[in-house]
From TrEMBL:
MF-aspect GO terms: helicase activity
A Pfam family: DEAD
Acidic residues: compositionally biased ranges: 8-17
Listed name of the protein: RNA helicase
Lineage of producing organism: Eukaryota, Sar, Alveolata, Dinophyceae, Suessiales
The protein's Enzyme Commission number: 3.6.4.13
Length: 483
């Protein structure tokens, strides 16, 4: 409600009469709800409404608007400056991304430079060891005529520089690091020597001939997975690619030679809905697999029962553990690490029949790793154990001699490795050092330093062993002078 409408003309008249009588109204601004009959400007002036007040109010409003406008203008300028800086930073980032030096190397030159480190170590010319195969005719002997004819059919007329220089090196079985620009032919530079080697050595049958009753080619694909056995499939050629796009590109290049060579290639990479299809095609056992690291690790970890890396058998290995629980735990871990390899255990908690069966499999070579407690340290006569590992050291020197005596039998050579902890295995350090000194073996410097740090009950024994080593070294030096 407008407060001006509540002012009473009668109050103004009463106020005027009060002045004439010398009296003053105690509440000249008292309000009432009656409708005014007119506007009393004198009353407005007394309560602060007037031209001067309006002017001041207008000035204040103008100042407020000016301040708001200035703030908005400043904010707009700051936003524009921020966008300009962001655009500059984006342009700089794009330039740096395109700069090969940001990747740790310079842009590959147009010229070809070859450096052979082995030739340099021999003192030979390291830069002119490998004449390039500059024509397809020159490459026929190394790559086979089959591959070269396939290149001609595909429209190739001559090798690119990286191909001409890389083919002779790779076909001779040498390692190679090649750096070349995009589109220079690097894919065929490393693929074709691999294909040529497979053609010369003969392709392994991926699915068998299907002629014999034991041939898994006659089985459905689902049953071939179980029939393959642990680690039965490993590709002849494995190519690692950093991205699925590059893996697919390499697969496309390799498949141009499938018809002429019979070499099947499969790309393995991540992506929704691709895993089942890729696994199905892997069970056809392609010779060449191109994969991203993540997908290959997935397959190796989850498909060990038929697909995985093939492990080279180093010979029979006997591992000594502390007790039966550690035997079983270690055997389980080794089996998982070696993609399902058979690992035997031998300890007192196994039945006699199971122990004899494990010994027979280890002796015959069906299993080449055995994890055992000290019961295998005596009476175990297997002549072809190549390596003994004391995962936990024995209690005394006599047991140590019996353990390491399981290798190097019947005139053969063998190795024994003992794992020692600086704290709890102090006594083992002492008797192992004594055995090595008596048998004329050099005591490792790390073991000598560990003996010097012994304290407590082992300190005197360690000092005695070290004194014996010192005397032996002095004697050996004296003999050397006499000789």
């Amino acid at each position: 409600m407008d407060p001006l409408a509540l002012l009473s003309d009668e109050e103004d008249e009463a106020g005027a009469d009060g002045e004439e009588r010398g009296l003053q109204d105690p509440d000249p601004k008292r309000l009432r709800t009656a409708e005014p009959e007119g506007v009393n400007f004198e009353a407005l002036r007394r309560i602060g409404y007037g031209a001067q007040a309006e002017a001041e109010e207008a000035a204040n409003a103008a100042a407020s608007l000016q301040g708001t406008f200035s703030a908005l203008q400043q904010k707009a300028q700051e936003d524009a400056a921020g966008r300009f800086k962001a655009d500059i930073a984006l342009d700089e980032a794009k330039e740096k991304a395109q700069d090969p030096s940001r990747l740790g190397c310079e842009e590959p030159p147009e010229s070809i430079e070859v450096y052979d480190e082995q030739a340099a170590q021999r003192g030979d010319d390291a830069e002119n060891q490998w004449p390039p195969w500059s024509t397809l005719e020159a490459a026929e002997e190394g790559l086979t005529k089959t591959l070269v004819d396939a290149m001609r059919t595909a429209g190739f007329t001559e090798p690119t520089p990286i191909q001409a220089q890389g083919w002779p090196i790779l076909c001779h079985g040498r390692d190679l690091i090649g750096v070349a620009r995009t589109g220079s032919g690097k894919t065929l530079a490393f693929l074709l020597p691999c294909f040529a080697r497979l053609l010369k050595e003969g392709l392994r049958s991926r699915m068998g001939s299907g002629s014999g009753p034991g041939d898994d080619a006659s089985l459905p694909v689902q049953m071939q997975k179980q029939a393959a056995g642990p680690g039965a499939y490993s590709p002849e050629i494995l190519v690692l690619a950093p991205s699925r796009e590059l893996a697919a590109q390499i697969e496309t290049e390799a498949r141009r030679f499938t018809a002429s060579t019979g070499i099947a290639t499969l790309a393995c990479y991540g992506g929704e809905g691709t895993r089942r299809e890729t696994l199905g095609r892997l069970r056809e056992r392609p010779e060449c697999v191109v994969g991203t690291v993540g997908r290959l690790i997935d397959f190796i970890d989850n498909e060990k029962h038929w697909y995985g890396s093939q492990n080279k058998n180093p010979g029979k290995v006997l591992i000594f553990a502390f007790d039966h629980e550690e035997c079983d735990s270690m055997a389980k871990k080794i089996k998982a690490a070696l993609n399902g390899a058979t690992v035997e255990t031998l300890h007192g908690n196994k039945k006699q029949a199971d122990r004899e069966a494990a010994m027979q499999r280890f002796r015959s070579g069906d299993s080449w790793i055995m994890v055992a407690t000290s019961i295998a340290g005596r009476g175990l006569d297997i002549k072809d154990i190549n390596l003994v590992i004391n995962f936990d050291p024995p209690e005394d020197g006599q047991d140590y001699v019996h353990r390491i005596g399981r290798t190097g039998r019947a005139g053969r050579k063998g190795k024994a490795i003992t794992l020692l902890r600086k704290g709890p295995d102090g006594r083992a350090m002492i008797f192992i050092t004594q055995v090595m000194r008596r048998t004329g073996l050099d005591v490792p410097q790390e073991l000598i330093e560990a003996l010097k740090q012994r304290r407590g009950r082992d300190m005197s024994l360690a000092a005695e062993v070290l004194q014996g080593l010192t005397n032996q070294q002095r004697l050996e030096r004296s003999w050397a002078k006499l000789i």
